[in-house]
Amino acid sequence: MHWMDHLLIVPIVLPLAAGAFLLFLDERRRALKAAISIASTLALLVVAILLLEFASAQSPDAPALAGVYRLGNWPAPFGIVLVVDRLSALMVTLTSVLALASLVFSLARWHRAGTHFHSLFLFLLVGLNGAFLTGDLFNLFVFFELLLVASYGLVLHGSGIRRVKAALPYIVVNLAASLLFLIGVSLIYGATGTLNMADLATRIPQVAAHNRTLLEAGAAILGIAFLTKAGMWPLGFWLPSTYSAAVAPVAAIFSIMTKVGVYVVLRLWLLLFGSASGALAHFGREWLLVGGLATVAFGIIGMLASKSLARRASHAVLISSGTVLAAIAMGHASVTGTALFYLVSSTLALCAFFMLIELAERGRQPEADAAESKGASPAESDEETMAETGKTGFAIPATMVVLEISFLGCALLLAGLPPLSGFVAKFALLTALLNSPGPGAAGAISPASWALLVLVIGAGLATIIGLTQAGIRAFWQPQDRAVPRVRFIEIVPVGVLLLVCAILTIQAGPVMNYMQSTAQSIHEPSNYVHGVLTTSHGQSPADKGDS
Amino acid sequence: MEIVLALGIGVLAGSGVWLLLRPRTYQVIIGLALLSYAVNLFIFAMGRLQVGMSPVLSAAQAGNPTHYADPLPQALVLTAIVISFATTALLLVVLLASRGFTGTDHVDGTKEPQGHDRDPDREREEK
């Protein structure tokens, strides 16, 4: 048995085993727990990059799958399969990068704020990787529940009245969404008779007319469950309070949780309701589009109206999620490709931003917050002081300089301004929107594209306004505050994530090519379906030349 | 038989949703429990309702799937029950923690009733 045959199961089994083992260790052995946790996350990153290389080595004409892993060696429609293609490999790699950054950040102090942080974190990674790799609908439910339960524990990490008050609605809303997930899955099973995603893709065009309503209802209810996770507009009111109440490393890893919902919508919508699905083609497209646009609008309003940095960041999460949803709903492979680039860039930026917020707000005194909420501006008194004493400048501590530069980087990324990858992403998205053929008149740009274009630019403007306001308040207003004590291990993950975004800009060509070929392969799912259903002994990255 | 099961699922789901929207956390948990009963019955019903179908293959009739109860929804229901059980336990712990921190069992964690829960007579007395 070639060891590479089992590479697909490693992202699921490794954190599971490590997290379970950590439960047996006494809570006081923090160094050992941290070491095991970091080691397994590093191993995850290596495996994810290997999977990414195997996936990108496939040529566009060849089957787009890097591997199919049959659990229990049962053939596809009856057994559960794990599938790695370009999209899954991309998401697993993104998860590993974010996990490593958040974990390193947490080692400074936050992992001590409660019990079992590392185990919960690793179980969250199991759920995330499983959700990205699975090819079966109910297996997706199981991994979803795993990641949700781990997230409930992580949201409560650090305890305190504010966190518990914010966690209760988060848990209840997600439990209700899980019940909707079950209803949707069972309706789909009742209408088609299978739960395997590839098998569903072949059966949906052949569904009898009297079962079609059941299938549409099931798909719609299933969509609501995922879109609640993605924070789509009428379903996402839980998001700002939850993300701003969580501790910094937890909020940082949560930046990928909305993207799980977006990934599932992308995968299932194009697989099950693509253009080859007969009467059900593009089911729900208008709802997805309107919901995505409304989410961006809601995020814009929230970004401008929020008073605290953490809430602004959560609304930035909503803006990012809504943009990707609306772009997916356009239904063109070129737009989807740029949306994937935007997804990666904004998720990395948000992860760094959540960590940075905690660092920046560490030095704030409670009196400063009270003065700001009353609208006091101490600028006038400082000018008089400077005129009296004749001082012309004041020394800025090195910590503040580093934090300010990082904040500037995050703001540029989130707003989509040059020179970082946020600009490349938005520019590419807008270009693709203006160049894609609309569903209406040939050659004309559809109203939906115009709406998304206006909202994307508006979101950039709102982000600039909101983050500039917040940044001036946080860094430039001279107030009585202590310089925050920032440890090296806390600023390094932020710096590394911003560096990754800078590399994304420099290497934007190859990355965008990868995203475009990913989008092509998910818009033409016949390779996926063929690969999953006809693999005889499981297709592994080791024999990618065979089929 | 279908109407009985449908009515049962409907009553459970309706009660569950109504309780889920109440302001006290205990009502919310009972509502979620009722909803999970309804959903589990629904999943089971998706395997098609039959009377007297055995779940185990017998040697004489092996090979004809119409003679057997569908095993897949049963597996789905078992998984869903186990997961709901664990999450209900977790939610109970959070409820208790919230009660301890805020001193009230209101879902918002506030002592004052808000919205239509406000009692005008009591407020008139307190003024």
Topology of this protein?
The complex is a heterodimer of chains A (547) and B (127).
Chain A: H1 10-24, H2 30-56, E1 65-70, E2 81-85, H3 86-106, H4 117-133, H5 137-155, H6 161-192, H7 197-203, H8 209-230, H9 238-245, H10 248-254, H11 257-272, H12 285-305, H13 309-329, H14 333-360, H15 366-373, H16 379-389, H17 398-415, H18 421-435, H19 447-476, H20 488-506, H21 508-523, H22 526-534
Antiparallel strand pairs in A: 1-2
Helix pairs in contact in A: 1-2, 1-4, 2-3, 3-4, 3-10, 3-14, 3-20, 4-5, 5-6, 6-8, 6-9, 7-22, 8-11, 9-13, 10-14, 11-13, 12-13, 12-19, 13-14, 13-19, 14-17, 14-18, 14-20, 14-21, 17-19, 17-20, 18-19
Chain B: H1 2-20, H2 25-45, H3 71-102, H4 120-126
Helix pairs in contact in B: 1-2, 2-3
Describe the protein's architecture and organization.
Helices cover 71% and strands 2% of the residues of chain A. Chain A has 22 helices and two strands. Chain A has a two-stranded antiparallel ribbon. The model of chain A is unreliable at 367-388 (pLDDT under 50). The longest helix of chain B has 32 residues, at 71-102. Chain B has 127 residues and is mainly α.
Structure described in brief:
With 547 residues, chain A is mostly helical. Chain A has helices at residues 10-24, 30-56, 86-106, 117-133, 137-155, 161-192, 197-203, 209-230, 238-245, 248-254, 257-272, 285-305, 309-329, 333-360, 366-373, 379-389, 398-415, 421-435, 447-476, 488-506, 508-523, 526-534; strands spanning 65-70, 81-85.
